[in-house]
Amino acid sequence: GRVEPVSAVAESPDLPPQGRREMYDRFDEAKRRADESFAVLDPLPRDREGDVMWRECHRAWDRWWRDHTTAVALLREWEGNHTEASHAAASHQAIEMNAVSYTALTNAFKRLLDHAGELVNGARNRANSSARTAAVSTVVASLIAVLVAVVLGFSLARFIADPIAEVVSLMQAMNKGDMTRRIASVRSDET
Questions:
Q1: How many CB atoms lie within 10 A of CB 148?
Q2: Cβ atoms 107, 19 nearer than 8 A
Q3: Three-class SS of residue 101?
Q4: In this structure, what DSSP letter does residue 4 have?
Q5: CB-CB neighbours of 156 under 10 Å
Q6: Cα angle: 98, vertex 51, 59; to 5 degrees
Q7: pLDDT tens-digit map of 76-126
Q8: Where does residue 82 fall: left (phi above 0), alpha (psi -120 to 50 degrees), or beta otherwise?
Q9: 187 vs 16, 50, 160, CA distance in Å?
Q10: What digits encode the pLDDT tens for the residues 27-64?
């Protein structure tokens, strides 16, 4: 679900105490989820540039979270004394100061996500290039295999057919009465 920014609490001085507690609980739950996400993402491999960006995201998160907890503390102080000064201090922290660190945080994460997108696109392009190379190599290898098979087939056919044709020619000559012809054998595969 959506978590309201701390500024929503500051901008709603008439919010009942139960509504404030629910918002604070949602803040705590969002922090727990963020910490779990960092725990999962921290050990993932990154290139040098991505690692620098990841550390910057951590620093920006830490700055924003400090501002956020300061704003929450000021809001809780205001809830205890309801003075105009404490509300003004909490509102200033929540609305103005948190905006600065939140902008830095979103910019850091945007740079990291853009970098990750570039890495993904580069990997995708290399994979596509490898796939095209593999496809071309397969076609070329197949064509070479067919050519070799045709050449071997014709060679083998001649290797077998030529001696048979010579025997057939000799038998036709013998059938006509010519018994003087001989088969000239130059091969050593038959004895």
A1: 10
A2: no
A3: helix
A4: -
A5: 10
A6: 20
A7: 888 888 888 988 898 888 888 888 998 999 999 999 999 999 999 999 999
A8: left
A9: 108, 71, 12
A10: 888 889 988 988 998 888 889 999 999 999 999 999 99
